[in-house]
Specification:
Blueprint (H helix, E strand, L loop, with lengths): L3 E12 L5 E11 L8 E7 H14 L20 H18 L3 H4 L2 H8 L4 H8 L7 H11 L4 H9 L36
Antiparallel strand pairs: 1-2, 2-3
Helix pairs in contact: 4-5, 4-6
Length: 194
């Protein structure tokens, strides 16, 4: 049976400049779902990126009532552990609900959000075909730069060498391949192992 485990954890304060700081959260994904190019991933996202994701998902799935994000309150205090943890829990619940919807799982922006560190602008450019790389390419490139999961790297070495693969059944990116993000983006044969 397919599963998707998502954890939002490890809030950290990041400084933008001497006057502005924000908190970002680690998003950890572990799955055996055919919808995902990578079976494990770990990225960091801030609250306003979650807001962007929700807006984009809502504009593409008008008939679906998306779950709410934790409210953006003017009284939010980054130095208050209760405030930070309450927001973290709300972000995790938001992602858990979204990942249960097959239509939302077909949105490439969701996969880029969860499995790359691309900015919202770069995610939009990738999804609209304005980059030299596909959604799956972006996810694989990020995974190869972020070697926190040596087990997956070892599994890939044992399996097919996806760099030499010619099994791209949807090189145009328009039709789904056998093991792709359901929006039709190419996937690596490495994901066939799970």
């Amino acid at each position: 049976q397919e599963f998707v485990t998502v954890l939002v954890r490890d809030p950290r304060t990041q400084k933008e400049d001497s006057w502005h700081s924000y908190i970002d959260y680690e998003i950890f994904i572990h799955t055996n779902s055919m919808c995902f190019t990578r079976k494990t991933s770990c990225v960091r996202r801030r609250f306003r990126e979650f807001v962007w994701l929700r807006q984009r998902l809502q504009s593409n799935a008008v008939l679906i009532q998306l779950p709410e994000l934790p409210s953006k309150t003017p009284f939010f205090n980054m130095n208050n552990p209760h405030h930070v943890d309450h927001r973290r829990q709300g972000l995790q619940e938001f992602l858990e609900k979204i990942l249960q919807d097959a239509l939302l799982l077909s949105d490439s922006r969701l996969h880029l959000f969860l499995q790359t560190q691309l900015s919202p602008e770069d995610m939009e450019a990738c999804v609209s075909g304005q980059t030299k790389y596909s959604v799956a390419d972006a996810i694989h490139k990020f995974a190869s730069l972020n070697r926190r999961f040596p087990v997956e790297d070892e599994e890939r070495k044992k399996g097919k060498n996806y760099a030499d693969s010619d099994s791209e059944s949807s090189s145009s990116g328009l039709g789904p391949s056998d093991d792709s993000i359901s929006c039709g983006c190419k996937a690596s044969p490495a994901s066939e192992e799970s």
